[in-house]
Amino acid sequence: PFNPGNFLVHAVSNIICSIVFGDRFDYEDKKFLTLIELLDENNKLQNSIQTQLYNFFPTVMEYLPGPHQKMIKNTGKVDEFTLEIVVEHQKTLDPTCPRDFIDAFLNKMEQEKGNGHSEFTVETLSRTTLDLFLAGTGTTSITLRHGLLILQKYPEIV
Predict the structure, then answer these.
(1) GO CC terms on record (predicted)?
(2) Which has the closest alpha carbon to 7: 148, 155, 129, 151?
(3) What is the pTM of this model?
């Protein structure tokens, strides 16, 4: 017996990386493993009462200690990771040939440049990327894990 959870999370995260960043990472890549650890830790920290209170009272909770502070630091590190890749994409951007989600978003940012009310900003790009990772990695890997469990329990289905 073994737990395929980590393998599934790495595979799903790498697929999301290829869509968002236009590139996959080696499964032993330190940056990739750090990204997954940060996202996994934040996923666990979201269940704490302090984090839930932070969602309702951010100005008050900002000054109080607790697991929500660690989650804020982790989110900052993920933002740094994303922003490094965004800067690289901005340097090599070819508007006629978008390579991935970031290029498409950067193209839309350029189109909306004159619009003062545009939501297409680097900050929005960073947050959207984080949302794609959090939503996509967790739900897809858990769904695959449950699917494998069902196939093990009911082999006659196959």
Answers:
(1) endoplasmic reticulum membrane
(2) 148
(3) 0.80
